[in-house]
Amino acid sequence: MFDNLSERLERSFKILKGEGKITEINVAETLKDVRKALLDADVNYKVAKNFTDTVKEKALGQNVLTAVKPSQLMVKIVHDELAKLMGGETAEINLKGQPAVILMSGLQGSGKTTFTGKLARMLKTKKGKNPLVVACDVYRPAAIEQLRVLAEQVGVPMYCELDSKDPVSIAQNAIKEAKAKGYDLVIVDTAGRLAIDEQMMNEISAIKEAINPQEILFVVDSMTGQDAVNTAKEFNERLNFDGVVLTKLDGDTRGGAALSIRTVVDKPIKFVGTGEKLDALDQFHPERMADRILG
Ligand code: GDP
């Protein structure tokens, strides 16, 4: 994950090795490399520019105060700013509500259904929750089947209505069922499209209105880089979601989405998917991610 970015950043800090102090010149040279590394990792242009401007200001400002070597000082500042860029604090999901309702959103293929299974498993095993997962994709029977199989593997019940073409009433009925049977968590998987379209956005907005979820998560494939960020922006404008799930971080993703999304949509990344298996899910910790990026 982010191997190329890590390598490139490490190389850019080498410019400062052997330098006695931080100067305008050696900082500018280092940060030129850092910015290139970020852009090559598919980080949004404005995000990369603001990032290096902030690091420059801090580096020049702190220089007089410290006996630390310039390269170490730069690594520390870049680390702290990377963590800030990704949100700083770990963001929890809201599980209040009887039942708590979580609504999934995102494009088809982003990993929504897989994440629904993974999240049910995580909250069942780690938080002692009793979840019901709901299939609201009325267009693709295969999607319902996929969730059924995942639910079975996780050992949680699944709600679907094979004859219904109305995702809003399916979601409402699922919540009634959860209340009647005592499930304390409902995770609603929704239909995705290959690209954003009006019908899809209207449908998920209608589900949101009808079920008033505690938490709306936007699921996005981290391999899609800048597109991930643009899609996030559009979904957020329509849904005002609560958090982002970045999937496929196990692939050769370059890091751009993880580093840009927070700034662009001002919503925290809450989870990362790191594989196809059901246990390949982590809560997102900005500090730890910054540690990983800097090796
Ligand atoms: P949906 O259309 O949004 O529901 O997406 P799916 O859950 O069907 O996932 C699409 C594909 O991505 C499937 O082949 C999943 O196994 C795969 N996938 C989902 N999450 C991850 C992940 O974190 N890592 C990897 N490598 N593959 C994933």
UniProtKB/TrEMBL annotation:
The keyword GTP-binding applies. Residues 268-281 form the SRP54-type proteins GTP-binding domain. Coiled coil: none annotated. It is an enzyme of class 3 (hydrolase). Keywords: Cytoplasm, GTP-binding, Hydrolase, Nucleotide-binding, Ribonucleoprotein, RNA-binding, Signal recognition particle. Its EC number is 3.6.5.4. GTP binds at residues 106-113, 189-193, 247-250. Its main location: cytoplasm. Transmembrane segments: none annotated. It catalyses: GTP + H2O = GDP + phosphate + H(+). It comes from the Bacteria. GO terms for molecular function: 7S RNA binding; GTP binding; GTPase activity. GO terms for biological process: SRP-dependent cotranslational protein targeting to membrane. It is found in: Cytoplasm. GO terms for cellular component: signal recognition particle. Part of the signal recognition particle protein translocation system, which is composed of SRP and FtsY. Composed of three domains: the N-terminal N domain, which is responsible for interactions with the ribosome, the central G domain, which binds GTP, and the C-terminal M domain, which binds the RNA and the signal sequence of the RNC. Belongs to the GTP-binding SRP family. SRP54 subfamily. Involved in targeting and insertion of nascent membrane proteins into the cytoplasmic membrane. Binds to the hydrophobic signal sequence of the ribosome-nascent chain (RNC) as it emerges from the ribosomes. The SRP-RNC complex is then targeted to the cytoplasmic membrane where it interacts with the SRP receptor FtsY. This is Signal recognition particle protein. It comes from Bacteroides graminisolvens DSM 19988 = JCM 15093. The gene is ffh.
